Amino acid sequence: MKNTIEYIYSIEGITPDQLKGFFVGWPNPPSPEVHLELLKKSDVVVLAVDKKTKKVVGFITAITDHVLAAYIPLLEVLPDYQKQQIGKRLTQEMLTLLKEFYMVDLLCDADLQSFYEQLGMRKATGMFIRNYDKQSGTK
Ligand SMILES: CC(C)(COP(=O)(O)OP(=O)(O)OC[C@H]1O[C@@H](n2cnc3c(N)ncnc32)[C@H](O)[C@@H]1OP(=O)(O)O)[C@@H](O)C(=O)NCCC(=O)NCCS
């Protein structure tokens, strides 16, 4: 399945229909339309697209001040496509795109730290707020 996946850096031509199935386990997930909007408004995106079905099967986003700092808020691979190195490739591509920045940060659960460590990232302590009533988007 691996060589049926292509990696793209733009959402040009992507429709909400191609973005179904993400945000697994989120009680109040963004709709595919809101997903497309957040991709559009992110500074950097990498999408994994199944060339056969044209569906997006994985994505990673980054936001940045374009001077020092970049933050990676979201990375997800659809369940049927996991464990095929797609998440690793998406993260590698993103880290390459962000390599000129002084700081590249993300938050993750402890069990994912080894996933990011193999990609050259280091453990840190973080802080966060989650407004769960806004989980599907601000509108
Ligand atoms: C985390 C996630 C993106 C990984 O994507 P994936 O395509 O299944 O991962 P890959 O196949 O690229 O894994 C690459 C390597 O990381 C390892 N890995 C994958 N998931 C891991 C995990 N949860 N914990 C530790 N290692 C993991 C794999 O074993 C693999 O190792 P290998 O190269 O030695 O074979 C995917 O499981 C996912 O979408 N999870 C739900 C959303 C999520 O948790 N996103 C991250 C938010 S911080």
Could you outline the blueprint of secondary structure elements for this entry?
Blueprint: E1 5-8, H1 32-41, E2 44-50, E3 56-64, E4 69-71, E5 75-77, H2 86-97, E6 103-105, H3 113-117
Parallel strand pairs: 4-6
Antiparallel strand pairs: 1-2, 2-3, 3-4, 3-5
The structure holds coenzyme A.
Task: Please provide a written account of the structure.
- Strands 1, 2, 3, 4, 5 and 6 form a 6-stranded mixed beta sheet that branches.
- The model has no long low-confidence stretch (mean pLDDT 97).
- By secondary structure, the chain is an alpha+beta fold.
- A hairpin with a 5-residue loop joins β2 (44-50) and β3 (56-64).
- The longest helix is centred in the middle third of the chain and has 12 residues, at 86-97.
- Helices cover 19% and strands 21% of the residues.
- The N and C termini lie far apart (37 Å).
- The radius of gyration is 15 Å and the shape is globular.
- It has one domain: Aminopeptidase (3-Layer(aba) Sandwich).
- It has 3 helices and 6 strands; from the N terminus they run βαββββαβα.
- The structure holds coenzyme A.
- Coenzyme A is lined by residues 75-77, 82-88, 108, 111-112, 114-115.
- The site of coenzyme A has 15 residues, from β5, α2 and α3.
